[in-house]
Please model this.
Amino acid sequence: MADMIDKLQFYFQFQFVRNVLIVGALIAVCAALLGVTLVLRHFSYIGDGLSHVAFGVMCVASVLDLADANALVMPITVLAAILLLRTGQNTKVKGDAAIAMISVSSLALGYMLMNIYGAKTNLTGDVCSTLFGSTSILTIKSKDVYMCLALFVIVVSIFVIFYRKIFAVTFDEDFARATGVKVNLYNNLLATIIAVVIVMAMNLVGSLLISALIIFPALSAMRIFKSFLKVTICSVVVSLVCAIIGILVSILAGTPVGPTIVTADMAVYFLFALAGGIKGRVA
Amino acid sequence: MAQLECKDLTIAFEDRTLYENLSFEVNSGDYVFVLGSNGAGKTTLVKTLLGLRKPTRGSIIIDDKLKEKGIGYLPQQKSMQRDFPASVMEVVTSACGGNRHERREQALAALDRLKVRELSAKSFSELSGGQQQRVLLARALCAAGGMLLLDEPVSGLDHTTTAEFYSMIRELNKEDGMTILMISHDIDAARRYGSHVLYISSEPRFMTAKRFFAQWEEENG
Model:
């Protein structure tokens, strides 16, 4: 135990390790807030889909040798998010099929472009770090921390200010629209935040992590709680705790950060599922 | 002036014209049953009246007073997530205005009106189908100033719950003067409670319930 504390104290002397913890915690909270409404609207897979879109655009930016890839990645991912959230409405290709279609197309095109035009030799390493965030997390700078902090403030503020509207749109979009709620405005706002969170998280911790951060905390909270507010709060707490535990374990055990956090999220889900089952039998 | 007036309404859905030149007026206190076979376009009509979709042609005129007060809407059961994690109060207050206290008071008043105040402390997902319908009706009441649009509100409910539900709607219509526009497949209920019938088909008809059922009996023996 004392060894573990010594090891953590040693690592936390370094600024980049402290940055990892801060960024991981901030992104975990943002993702969990978004996750509740996305899971309940059957858009659980949107995180994966959008991160694949971002991956595809990142490959294009890399081929074009753009100095700031985000200038291209961010607007296109936002646009994809808006289009995907509209697929529940009057479109030919619906929800999950549209996400799957855009997701695999972007992934395939991006990887193909990198293969044909990519000047870098370490192609497999690049793709792996984009998908799993295994190396990029060590390069988090103070600028990234401030950007995440700004994103965190924006996402939390939007959730607090528009909480009732977000609930109304999530619970029953048609009713909300019929009672004068500007559903399209909230959908577009939500889509923009989702895209920004995913791109930020992908740059920092990889696309695998962000998908799991969106889905697992919400699903875990729903196994225990039956009110939207309680599910939202529990989801945030679970996500935060799992992110911190995952990062600490990865430091101690030398495992990749993204998959370690996902493993912690999975473990909590199974614990909550068990507790939910017991609670259901008792009640 | 009528509360709601449709003029020469044409509704087309996915390249198929459902009906053309539908005109009718709904006045305050009317109890209109919207009848018709599956796929005739009853839900599409209600969604058009609510402004959720645009008519292919024609116009819908809503009285200024009603526009200001709002129209309550109870969607079809199959379009709802019955296992959604929400408390009853979260569901009902989502349609109420004002500050937190006012919203709570409005929601409790609506639950009281429907005689289900005791459900206020429960979770929506734990309720039976009939209780969930009452909670959703309470939500619709919070948003309704003078008219309720109900989309097959009793489908999937047992006989007793259906009778209770009809009785509740009738009370709202008779005692509170609420205008009701209800999509239904229940001919007996339309005959018993309806003041008017809007029959949706390729040649839609709107008339008093009495006249509609006189014609119906002539046509069907």
Notes: Residues 167 and 229 of chain A are 9 Å apart (CA to CA).
